[in-house]
Write a structure and sequence with these properties.
This protein is of the alpha+beta class. It has four helices and eleven strands, in the order H-E-E-E-E-E-H-E-E-E-H-E-E-E-H. The protein has one domain: Nucleoside Triphosphate Pyrophosphohydrolase (Alpha-Beta Complex), CATH 3.90.79.10. A hairpin with a 6-residue loop joins strand 10 and strand 11.
Length: 205
């Protein structure tokens, strides 16, 4: 029964995504545009979905000791480690380093579109299902804690809000996702909104 449920979940998730065979350059681009004089830095994140009775998405709370994005909620992920590393490899490497997600327990299913952040990163989001036996172990040098958000919340449009913030002298509209314990906003919330919208559309169609 558990195996059947996971296959059904993977089929539902995968139907909403771009194939892993899609060239990254062909993925649509959303979010903010970096200044034309500055080339966006490539990065990748893992949108890991648990396969229990109530599927949920894994997020991390970044360490307060970090120089950049300290204390923020994010997906496991980071910058590309060399020009030959693929977004998939980046996402899997970072997920194992930051959250202890062993690759044998992670099944990549597809991509969301690329997303430009206001801090100059061009993120590729890899969606994957996580085996029930996976153990999440944060690396406390980078991550204070690992937590989950129910997939049912991610697909609920009433849980999202739009706000305006100023950064580097410019005003941006951002998305936030309601959570009882954490402030989920910016690129993380935007990617969750994109993913939730895709799943909701597929479910209602």
């Amino acid at each position: 029964m558990g195996s059947d449920f996971r296959l059904a979940l993977e089929a539902r998730l995968g139907s909403a995504l771009f194939s892993l065979e899609t060239p990254i350059s062909g993925l649509p681009l959303a979010g903010y545009r970096a200044d034309s004089r500055e080339r966006p830095r490539p990065a990748a994140v893992l949108v890991g979905v648990t396969s229990g009775a109530e599927p949920a998405i894994v997020l991390t709370l970044r360490s307060l000791a970090l120089a950049h994005h300290a204390g923020q909620v994010s997906f496991p992920g980071g910058g590309r480690d060399g020009p030959d590393e693929s977004p998939l490899d980046t996402a899997l490497r970072e997920a194992q380093e930051e959250a202890g997600m062993e690759r044998r327990h992670v099944r990549p299913l597809g991509y969301l579109g690329r997303y430009d952040t206001i801090t100059g990163y061009r993120m590729t989001a890899v969606v994957a299902s996580l085996a029930p036996e996976i153990i999440l172990t944060p690396d406390h040098q980078e991550v204070d804690s690992v937590f989950t958000v129910p997939l049912a919340h991610v697909t609920d449009p009433d849980r999202y809000r739009r706000e305006r913030v100023r950064y580097s002298g410019r005003c941006f509209e951002i998305i936030t996702l309601e959570h009882p314990s954490h402030h989920i906003w910016g690129a993380t919330a935007a990617l969750l909104h994109d993913f939730g919208s895709r799943l909701s559309f597929r479910s209602s169609g």
